[in-house]
Amino acid sequence: MNKAFDRYSSVCFALVGALFVIESRNISTSAYGSEVGPNLFPMGLGIILIILSLRLFWESTRARTESSTATEGKTLQYKRFLVIFAATLLYVYLLEPVGYVITTFLFLFVTFKVMGSKSYIKTTFVAFAFSAGVYYVYVHLLQGTLPGFPVWLGF
């Protein structure tokens, strides 16, 4: 890891998070048939991004500088990046026609496996529990709206 790069990227991410928070205030505060407005998630994600950026900045300034010999043997993992990037694009493209629970489950499953999860059972369970749990909490408890299951499944 390059500590200078981490410091600069943390500042950039904090600025992007601040932009999310500022611009989410321009979104209407309520949606038709929903108790939760569409400005909630962008604002929350912006706040989380700012907090994580501040932590990255703090850790990168606090840590000792690495020697050049520690970073010589490391290679960039382009294959992992491209697979996760393609999975993200497919997730965005398939969210509406396939539904939130299925696309989120597939996205999480693929990214967990790419990042090195060894157990298919644990990966399947965590991906399904997260996607179904978020759907239940957001749609049923908070009265928000997310794309449901596709019509061809009969749900």
From TrEMBL:
TM ranges: 40-58, 78-94, 123-142
Pfam family membership, one: TctB
Annotated DUF1468 domain residues: 10-147
Keywords: Membrane, Transmembrane, Transmembrane helix
Identification of the protein by name: Tripartite tricarboxylate transporter TctB family protein
Organism: Brevibacillus panacihumi
